[in-house]
Amino acid sequence: MNELRAALEAILFVSNEPVTVDALADALGADQASVTQQLADWKSFIDANVGGFTLEQTAGGWRLATRPEHEAILKKYFAKKGETRLSIAALETLAIVAYRQPITAPEVSDIRGVNSTGVLHTLLERRLLRIAGRKAVVGSPFLYRTTREFLIHFGLNDIRDLPRLEEFGDLVGETISEDLVSAVQSLTVNPSE
Amino acid sequence: MTDEEVQESGYEVTLPSFHGPLDLLLHLIRKNEIDIYDIPIVPITQQYAAYLDAMEELNLEIAADYIYMAAVLIHIKSQMLLPRDENAAAQEDPRADLVNRLLEYKRFKAVAETFAELDVVRMGVWPRPAVSLADSEAAEIDMSEVSLFDLIDAFRGALTRYKLNHPQAIELKRMLHKISDKMSELYGKLKEKSPIRLQWFLESRDRDELIAIFLGTLELVRLGGISLQQSDLFGDILVAITQNPLDEAQFVVYDQR
Prior knowledge:
The structure holds two protein chains of two kinds. By secondary structure, chain A is an alpha+beta fold. Chain A contains nine helices and five strands; from the N terminus they run H-H-H-E-E-H-H-E-H-H-E-E-H-H. Chain A has a three-stranded antiparallel beta sheet. Chain A is globular and about 60 Å long. The relative contact order of chain A is 0.10. Chain B is mainly alpha-helical. Chain B contains eight helices and three strands. The longest helix of chain B has 28 residues, at 96-123. The two termini of chain B are 58 Å apart. The chains are: A alpha+beta, B mainly alpha. Chains A and B meet through strand 2, helix 5, helix 8 and helix 9 of A and helix 1, helix 3 and helix 4 of B.
């Protein structure tokens, strides 16, 4: 096994936050291309040989994490209740902010047709949104943006990875195709690009 | 708003929960298999109103957002009834605004549904737990992501640590005013002149002294040495000496309490 790969594994083993290729290259004194190559190799190795965890690319970095299928076991062993699922109101609000950021509370409420101040506050507390200044209009309302936690939570590498909004045009009513969900997910798991 | 499953088993029997007036309108459009670009405004307005009535009957609180939308629908309806000027070719359809809002909301609703599925999957993904690496450098913190809540947390943490390291000193002040002194003073005054106005006796005294006087007065009343009278609500309180003489030497006991 080469030393670069071993050192890289060591760093990611200890890190709990996604580590960027930049930071890895810097720490290891290697060029980004070889770090990226090693990450890709390691990921395919893990996915082929290791069952309990995976190497994932999220929020612009890389981290080790468990696979969704072990959720129940982990919850049971660590006696963890788990976070509550996001409500429909929260998901709608996140969707709007994700595509229209930076955006104010009245603008979100207008699109949803429902007052959304409370939901926005909850999302701020969950750190999925943050305040990014004020809009230069009367009353200077706060502008909201998604956070790095938002990207990590939904397994996105970059906010620009979201499918174009137009692609969601006529999907309401039918169940969302599995393709779309896996498309969103695959954006983050293909390191060879 | 609840996450109840939308169930449509029968007409007007079950009331699905909607996530706002736009959601309700989309439901009506889908149910009636209407072309969203050509909404028959009269029947839709009627059905919308029927749902609001049903909600009212079920004692559900109807949010102002729903009522606002009812007003919008009625406004559109009235505009549609007005005779159109055939010559004004580029006249805008009164429904255009609403249609655009519905289409936009519909898209975000679809995004939200995708997010919901991702939410479930990703909830099962656990990262390595946070370890506090001693002496790790602050340079690793992404400054752009510091939210107000992070800042509050940081301050709260610092304050808690400070309090732990610097327990507040308990300051023991010398008792400036003895209750017994105040009892003697008041009782002495009353022996010269009775009754007196309590207000007059309290004039220009500081907080600690007032507390001592208050406690002393209560003690004197309890001992039966003085009586308090008030002729009317919020009126002056008069203090009078009673027929029951007190031994002033025993006042000292009350300082021990």
